[in-house]
Amino acid sequence: MTAELRERMGAFSREVQEAGHPQVQHLCRSLHEIMSAFPDLEFALEPGRALEDLLGLDSMGWVLDDLGKHKLGYWHDVGRIHMRQRQGLPAHAEWLDAYASRMVGVHLQDAAGDEVALPPGSGEVDFKMLREALPKSAERVLDIHQRHGRAEVLAAVQFLLDLGI
Question: What is the pLDDT of residue 20?
Fold first, then answer.
């Protein structure tokens, strides 16, 4: 993908977020009503995978800031962020800088090219950067496609343990 195309895709995503303000406001109102009715429930939001998804870097912050007094956190999906980054959208470092302090969980998967749900350690994701930002209390969910066998899953778990994740 060329730098020009990435810039155009990033601009398109920003336009979608701006146009999506009414939907973000509706999401906030809906979450507020649910969380007020059920104050013991905890919620986490994760960004979408596609370029035109509503919850991008900025809009995620709007929702988290608006509902900060409730039990609402950020869920980091390594594969989704990798795919968004390949489309010219904000990279892992930007998401982690912005929301690691609010992170309540993470989907641990690797990605390479257009493929996600790879065993960690077999793709392009920088798990050392994730380790540095990952709160100790964050839930960790291994998210590997079923086509990978037991040996690959065990190797991925060992890879993550060796990194201290």
Answer: 81
